[in-house]
Amino acid sequence: MIYIGIFAQLLSHGIELAEEIYELRSSGVDVQSRLTELLPITTAEARRYIRTAEELCGPLPEKERAIRDGTVELCRAKRVDFNRLVMIGIMTRKVPREHRIQREQLRRTLVERAMDYDLTELKNWGDHLTREIRETLPRPRVRPTLHHSAKADADGRKYIKITGPDVLLSRMITTINERAVAMWRKDRSQPMDELKFHALSQLIYQGGTASSPMSEDDHLANPLRSLLHQPAVIITAPELNKEALIDDSEGRKWFATTDGALVSLSEYSTMKLSDYGWAVVIGGDHQILDLQRIHRGFSPAQKAAQTIAQVVCAAPGCSRSAALSDAHHLVPWMKNGPTNMDNLSMLCSCCHRKMGHSADLERTADGRYLWRTLSGKTRMSRLAIEEYNGGSLARVQLAMN
């Protein structure tokens, strides 16, 4: 174990630093946060350090590992510094992942003469070797895929991810961009990413059975089409029948309650499907099968207030903007956690995925957050609102991107 001290001296111990980073990561330490706290590097640079360490010290099949073990000893003998190891890693990743042996052979070739070049010369040489290797490899078949989320997130959004051959997707993107630009020339008030969505939607529907994409109003007017993409709920009302309903001049239907009050069917549905409360599942024999709290998300006002107070993600060491983060129940909703400001924190999507699986978050009396891993280790967040202003936060976001 080497002491993480002077930065320049640390980088000169290339393979030793890689082994240190990999050992810390294997023991469950948040190495990315540790590196950005102790060294003058950005979050993106810390991620490159971690990836380089994993490539030099992580598991590999036996044949590739034998080549890499020789490369590691060569790094140690030639005292290759860490910056060069990072650059070599970038070069080797340009060889397709399925050709691991060629990757490791390229890494060893670059390490052998790494100290003879500066970083720019090393990159140029690596690019030349990479092109030569790729020309000898068979062109892989790219399998086209389309994945989409089954459920909407807390903000009512769904996601689609498309992968496919470069030429095919490039033609698709070009077609979408051309239509979006044409729309933008007519109305420049909408952002381009939104216009691209509308362009894709128009292309799909004009080529199919519909002449135009369905808006939210279209969904209301044509609920049969909506059933293809949205959940439907059946509301049973055994106490009602057609004879008990009263039609008004606008076509709305009403019924009288036991105390004489009139309730519309839309109000009745709203009461049945409140955005908070309890849901009871009753079986065919009229027995209660389950009782669940109805999911309820934080309101935009609650998230806005918490964003202003937090500035950045609540996880210790994370500098991602709270404005681009997810609302998180400190006490989970499924464990009767309330949806109020005392139980709200903003977590970026990366840190949010760790909640409940590898860590939990608690708010302290002074407004900070305590990050507790399942192994019992704890870390305290900063009071970011005292450390950041608009300019410094913008610089952090630019460095991360």
UniProtKB/TrEMBL annotation:
Keyword 4Fe-4S part of the UniProt annotation: no
Cited SMART domains: HNHc
Keywords, comma-separated and alphabetical: Endonuclease, Hydrolase, Nuclease
Record-annotated HNH nuclease domain positions: 302-353
Any GO MF annotation of the entry: nucleic acid binding
Listed InterPro entries: HNH (IPR002711), HNH_nuc (IPR003615)
Protein name as it appears in the record: HNH endonuclease
